[in-house]
Amino acid sequence: MQQNTSIKITSKKLNIQECYDFVQDVSCGGISLFVGTVRNQTQDKEVTLLDFSTYQSMAIKEMQKIADRALTDFHILKIAIHHAKGKLQIGDIPVVIAVSSPHRKAAFAACQFAIDTLKETVPIWKKEHFADGEVWVNTHP
Amino acid sequence: MKITLLFFGILKDIIGDTSKELQVTESITVDGLKTHLLQKYKELTNFSNFSIAVNEEYVKANDILKTNDVVALIPPVSGG
To answer: Is residue B70 in some structural domain?
Structure first.
């Protein structure tokens, strides 16, 4: 299963093309991409930046588990799950998930499964910075 | 027996440290440890909503700890 999954946590800028190229295959008719982006406000308050911290060794393991489960539970060929750490500006990309499948239904479903599960289980935290202070995000909407 | 605690997210800010070594009773359970921590670190009182991972795996309340286990306190995650 290992060669059909790409798991990464990096303080460098994420590369959507890299994820796409990893999952792309001539046997696949569809590639689903989820790109998370830093938005400029939360609950009507203006966000200046997000700071992502991780329990990196465990986060990699949990992301690998999600990828392995996606391969087992959905008819997909490959999956990439990449997450950024450190300070991100508005518009930056904290997470990219790419999934390839012979058919689009499984690609969509597996991609949604992966991001939904990541937000529940992977030990990564974001701290929102505002003009007047910073707050650890407490929920996973 | 000796264990190592790791603190993340808001807990790191509250405790003021990323890790501590702790002496605990032999064969203490995960739940027993949580109770012990909430008594020992009063700062955790309003932040008791954390999960526990031992040696990089989520655990159950009645799992038993071993000497030199690395116990991470995991506040609500917010990745993605």
So the answer is: yes
Residues of B in contact with A55 (CB under 8 A): 6, 8, 53, 56, 72, 74
Chain A partners within 8 Å of B13 (Cβ): 136
- Cβ of A83 within 8 Å of Cβ of B80? The answer is yes
- Counting the structural domains of chain B, the total is 1
Indicate whether B16 belongs to any domain. Answer: yes
Q: Between chains, do A53 and B8 touch, taking CB under 8 Å as contact?
A: yes
CATH number at residue B41: 3.10.20.30
Output the DSSP codes for B15-26: HT-SEEEEE--T
* Cβ-based interface (< 8 Å): residues of B facing A: 6, 8-10, 13, 53, 56-58, 72, 74-80
The per-residue DSSP string of A3-52 comes to GGEEEEEESSPP-HHHHHHHH--TT-SEEEEEEE---SEETTEEEEEEEE
Task: Tell which of B13, B71, B78 to mutate to test the A interface (max A CBs under 10 Å).
Answer: B78
Neighboring chain A residues of B72 at a CB cutoff of 8 Å: 55, 58, 123
Q: What is the pLDDT along chain A (141 residues), one digit of tens a residue?
A: 459 999 999 999 999 999 999 999 999 999 999 999 999 988 888 999 999 999 999 999 999 999 999 999 999 999 999 999 999 999 999 999 999 999 999 999 999 999 999 999 999 999 999 989 999 998 544
| Domain count for chain A | 1
- ipTM of this model? 0.95
**Contact yes or no for A23/A80 (Cβ under 8 A):** yes
Domain of A51? Answer: 2-136
